[in-house]
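Notes from the 1:1 (GR / supervisor)

We went over the backlog. Supervisor wanted to see one worked example end to end before approving the batch request, so GR pasted a single chain during the call. The sequence is below; no edits were made to it. Supervisor asked that the structure be written out right there so they could see what the output format looks like.
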Amino acid sequence: MYSKKQILLPIEQLVTNVKALKEHQFDLQFPVAKNEIGVLSDGIQNTAQELHELIKHMQSQVTEKTVALKNAHQTIEFLFSISQQLSSVKLTSPILKNALSALARQAKLEKLCIELNNGIFINTAGGCASIDNYTKRIAIIINGKPYGFLNYVSHDKSPEQYALIESFTGLIARALYQEEHSLQEQKILIMEERSIIARELHDSIAQSLSFLKIQCTLLHRQVDNQSQQQVKQTICNIEQVIADAYVQLRSLLATFRLTATESNFKEAMSTMIAMLQKQTNANISLKDAKKISTLMPASIYIYYK
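Structure output shown during the call:
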């Protein structure tokens, strides 16, 4: 009875517990004894507890890594979607506003806005992040050229959120740079086309008008002053029409040769109007000039007095 109770049954329980530990079952009862079997039981129990803690720690790390990888995957998908959206369409205020709204949902921000160097603010539905103690600003800059700032309010100081906002700011900077580069290319193409048209007009119509003007002058000299008064009047009328057409052609050629070095539409319009003002006595004024922008379309009124 003593051997069965003190030796055989504890050993059988230890064997059962070892098999249970192999199946990752740790809620077990170990035999208590004051002999060698008790020492063996305490050792197996301590090992089981340490193994249990180690497995829980590893499972916790795997869960954390899984959540981190899932969040990173969502962030990459979000940034890729924003990149596709900004590069596939013309960059306008509604497009940037939609991108900001998507960032607000992804990063869980209430207030954020884009502050461009030309004084334009693009806000989300939650409003613009005013400059206060809680506002954070990230410069929108690419290749050393600044375009403005991304302002946002956040009490979350996690590096993941900051990395997401910083990456988004880089995409905005690249989109603004590409938009400016595209505008520059379009401007060059338009100026080249205008130059071609101006040369064609000068080489064809202008020379023809000059020839007709010379012929009218010769014809005017060949007509007798006394007997051909009616013919002279007709010639004078033709000369007047040719002179008017020549003046209009010269004005058209001057317009085609106007150049605007600024890529901003507001500055380009001001430059062209200043150049036109030198060629006419008319008073030309541009209304709502402050609202004119490549990102915020507005009505333009030009008055000639």
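Supervisor's comment: The domain at 90-181 is CATH 3.30.450.40 (Beta-Lactamase).
Batch request approved.
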